[in-house]
Amino acid sequence: QLSGKWFLVGMASHCSYLAEHSHQLEPTTVTVTVLDGQSLAISTFRKLDRMCWEIRQHYIPIQAPGRFLLKGEGDWAGVDVVVGEVDPSSFAILYYQKGRSISVKLYGRSSRVSDAVVDKFEQRIRAVGLSEDVTYYFPTYGFCDSADEFHVLDGEL
């Protein structure tokens, strides 16, 4: 259900970096590949200093269907990922939790989603105690489709 290309439409989080840099949000796409029928290889494409970068991550399935552990190093290591709701043709809502901190992301098959989907997303963020004050929507143009070999960050290192 998650395979293929997705656009990051919105995110709700108490992340201080996001709050301080919200005026610099870059259009972001994600390509999901299902490995061995269960784990997910995630390639995120976004601009940093006007250069396209690819960030590779690996989600390992845990416990129940739709629950994953983000494998890797640094701040994102040990993040629990839960698929909240998916319509494979139009949108996905995912929860990211580390310790007591939670973020919610809305992905679309296109860079724009319907008002009904945005309403669902906003209901979900309120349900976990987040608010519109910490909700950010991403640009809908200027996407990267690839990055050269010198601009790949591998979360497996």
From TrEMBL:
Keywords attached to this Swiss-Prot or TrEMBL record, sorted alphabetically, are: Disulfide bond, Secreted, Signal
Task: Extract one GO cellular component term from the record.
Answer: blood microparticle
Where in the numbering of this chain does the Lipocalin/cytosolic fatty-acid binding domain appear? 3-137
Which InterPro entries does this entry report, sorted A to Z? A1-microglobln, C8G, Calycin, Lipocln_cytosolic_FA-bd_dom
GO biological process terms on file: complement activation
Q: Membrane-crossing residues?
A: none
Superkingdom of this protein's organism = Eukaryota
> What are the protein's GO molecular function terms?
complement binding
Which SUPFAM superfamilies does this chain map to?
Lipocalins
The record's subcellular locations are: Secreted
Protein's name according to its UniProt entry:
CO8G protein
